[in-house]
Specification:
- This protein is globular.
- The chain has one domain.
- Strands 1-2-3-4 form a 4-stranded antiparallel beta sheet.
- By secondary structure, the chain is of the alpha+beta class.
- This is DUF397 domain-containing protein.
- It comes from Streptomyces resistomycificus.
């Protein structure tokens, strides 16, 4: 497992009106601009537990979210939410 840089700038994915500590998902982008550049994800309630992917996979995930490919995981959508 690679070391996580200590100088990352974390961005919290929370609604602008959100108050309190969350838990929220945070994302940080590592050095590099190519598809292999690292992307780091963590939850505010467990900041030492970091998941790493790369920019190519992150961009594909974001495009999938925008296209509604994961809507069935959300309560109130047309499909039922699977058990967690």
């Amino acid at each position: 497992m690679s070391d996580i840089p200590t100088d990352l700038t974390w961005t919290r994915a929370a609604p602008p009106e959100a108050t309190g500590p969350g838990p929220w998902i945070e994302i940080a982008f590592g050095e590099g601009d190519d598809g292999d550049a690292p992307v780091y994800l963590r939850e505010t309630s467990a900041p030492d537990n970091v998941v790493t992917t790369n920019r190519r996979k992150w961009d594909a995930f974001v495009l999938g979210v925008q296209a509604g490919e994961f809507d069935h995981f959300v309560n109130g959508s047309d499909g039922e939410r699977p058990d967690a």
